[in-house]
Amino acid sequence: MEVVVLNVSGQETGARVQLPDSVFGVEPNDHAIYLDVKQYLANQRQGTHKSKQRNEIAGSTRKLHKQKGTGGARAGSVKSPLFNGGGRVFGPQPRDYSFKLNKKLKSLARRSALSYKAIDNHIVVLEDFNFDSIKTKNYINLVSGLNFADEKTLLVLPAANNNIYLSSRNIKKAKVITADQLSTYDILNAGRLLLTASSVKTLEEALAK
């Protein structure tokens, strides 16, 4: 698949980039995408939720009233889950939600997500660029020139660039990451995927195996 390369103003440069079919033209595997997104979201969970059970409640251990003759149910402790302030039955405990996925499956999921973006024509290739200074206005001008100011955009860079990253950080619908940080969730969550000419090569080297 051949794509026209644009500059930061949204104008065609005359150059073209070939998006390799091994990365952007595979048969999408929906189940692989599901598993990879599920793992990504699970890994975001802190798992620090906790409620006290009856053995952790601070309170008297005396018997509340005699066993028989009250007309009510037996009650042995104020810590019982039946009473206000008592322990919780089967409450949440700290746990690790993460789980393992094979590298080949994760690679397939990313290639499938990229292929969906290519099918929908939601991939834009930009020439390699840099900002002279850290200014939010620079990045606003970039997405405005591409007519993506109202869309979620994900810019993928071949390597870390502090000026570009910090210029985009205050923009709600914009995200900048490097090619090695690219996840299936990020690809699907973005309305438009912005790639630089160099990041296309980096993704091909990483995923076309």
UniProtKB/TrEMBL annotation:
<dbReference type="GO" id="GO:0005840">
    <property type="term" value="C:ribosome"/>
</dbReference>
<keyword id="KW-0694">RNA-binding</keyword>
<keyword id="KW-0689">Ribosomal protein</keyword>
<dbReference type="GO" id="GO:0006412">
    <property type="term" value="P:translation"/>
</dbReference>
<dbReference type="GO" id="GO:0003735">
    <property type="term" value="F:structural constituent of ribosome"/>
</dbReference>
<keyword id="KW-0699">rRNA-binding</keyword>
<feature type="region of interest" description="Disordered">
    <location>
        <begin position="44"/>
        <end position="89"/>
    </location>
</feature>
<dbReference type="InterPro" id="IPR023574">
    <property type="entry name" value="Ribosomal_uL4_dom_sf"/>
</dbReference>
<dbReference type="InterPro" id="IPR002136">
    <property type="entry name" value="Ribosomal_uL4"/>
</dbReference>
<keyword id="KW-0687">Ribonucleoprotein</keyword>
<comment type="function">
    <text>Forms part of the polypeptide exit tunnel.</text>
</comment>
<comment type="function">
    <text>One of the primary rRNA binding proteins, this protein initially binds near the 5'-end of the 23S rRNA. It is important during the early stages of 50S assembly. It makes multiple contacts with different domains of the 23S rRNA in the assembled 50S subunit and ribosome.</text>
</comment>
<comment type="similarity">
    <text>Belongs to the universal ribosomal protein uL4 family.</text>
</comment>
<dbReference type="GO" id="GO:1990904">
    <property type="term" value="C:ribonucleoprotein complex"/>
</dbReference>
<dbReference type="GO" id="GO:0019843">
    <property type="term" value="F:rRNA binding"/>
</dbReference>
<dbReference type="Pfam" id="PF00573">
    <property type="entry name" value="Ribosomal_L4"/>
</dbReference>
<protein>
    <recommendedName>
        <fullName>Large ribosomal subunit protein uL4</fullName>
    </recommendedName>
</protein>
<comment type="subunit">
    <text>Part of the 50S ribosomal subunit.</text>
</comment>
<dbReference type="InterPro" id="IPR013005">
    <property type="entry name" value="Ribosomal_uL4-like"/>
</dbReference>
